[in-house]
Structures are given as structure tokens and as C-alpha cells.
């Protein structure tokens, strides 16, 4: 498995490794509850966290408890709901009126799956027949959003959330809290692009997983190569 040589040598420096979950540490699957991590991902993260040199964190659109259930790494910081949910901090109460208004407008097309995260709504349409997917996208784009809410575009998913959050802000905060570490952000989806932009402005390292246009400086083809890179970093020693 060939990895970019200049990425391989980063492990000689103290790193803050920030990762998305779905599509980065786990393959994209039709049912979110089936997104188990890539083989070796948990072991590589455990080694990063316990090697004494690097730090790691997850920034995800999922609830943090879901990622903890998949990875079973209690010491791994998980920032959930695109930056709304932080370890040790209370979540603001959900806007139930806004969520109800959105639910009432959602299309009833066969194959559409609504993932209710309590604070946000994700509408998955990967299982909709391909000939109907564009129509579902148009219907979702026409939804009347509650004041201050926004629609985020992902891979066969549209997520509705309150404004003012996002992976860019979350990644920036994590990097600012670890000034002695080189920040690295690895993600695969459109929602990760704001994180890439934020880290490039901070002279961090950005890695896109998979195909598609990106602001990231590097690219890996799939989660298996992400795991291989993490494992490589855990085996390196700091330069004296």
C-alpha cells in the first residue's frame, strides 16, 4: 500500500490528528447504524492516544455517543453534531418547534431514511432508486427552513441544523487548544471542506479521503489507507 512520502514523515512531529468518522475511519454504508470502523482503526487510534507524543480527536455529524459505541475508546475526544456537542459541555436545548416544522415537510419517497439526532435531522436517500434521487434532492432544496437554520450537503444525505456551528469552527478550536502540536484534519465529505479551509489558514495539514473536488492538500483513496497512515505515525519516533 503506497502512501505519500511527505505524509509518512509527519509522525516525527507531535501531531493533533483530527478525523471525521463516516467515510474516513469507516466505509460509507446504506444504514448509519452499520458503519463499523475499518479493521485496525481502533488499534491505531489507541496507539496514537497512548504513545505519549500525539493527540487525536473525532469531529463528526453524529452524536458523540454513537462514535464511542463504534470505537470503544473512552479517552478519545469526540465532538458531535458538527461542533454542537463537546466533551464535558452541556448541549443547548433542541429547537423542537423547528424540528417539527422540518419533519412535516420531508418527502415520503420510498427509500428515504430520516435520522433524527435530537438536535438536527439528517435525511438519507442512498436507498432511493437512482432515477428518483434527483427529485428527492430538489424537494429537500425547496424546504422552508426555520429562521437561523441551514441545510448541509453530504454524500446522498442532506442535514438540517441550526446555524453558527460547523466543522471549520470545531477544527479551529481544537487546533488552538493544542498549540504545540501540528494539526492534521482528515475527512471525506462536503461538510469537511470547511475544516480543510480552517486548517489551511492555520498552516495545518489537510487530507481528503476519496474522490471529488477539495481544498485539502493531500488525498488518500479510502479508509484502509487512512488506517495505514495512522499506524505508520504511531511507529515513528520524534526527531531530536
From TrEMBL:
Pfam families: Trehalose_PPase. Gene3D superfamilies: HAD superfamily/HAD-like (3.40.50.1000), Trehalose-6-phosphate phosphatase related protein, domain 2 (3.30.70.1020). It catalyses: alpha,alpha-trehalose 6-phosphate + H2O = alpha,alpha-trehalose + phosphate. Pathway: Glycan biosynthesis; trehalose biosynthesis. Its EC number is 3.1.3.12. GO terms for biological process: trehalose biosynthetic process. One of its GO terms (molecular function) is metal ion binding. The keyword Ion transport does not apply. Keywords: Hydrolase, Magnesium, Metal-binding. Its cofactor is Mg(2+). Removes the phosphate from trehalose 6-phosphate to produce free trehalose. Belongs to the trehalose phosphatase family. This is Trehalose 6-phosphate phosphatase.
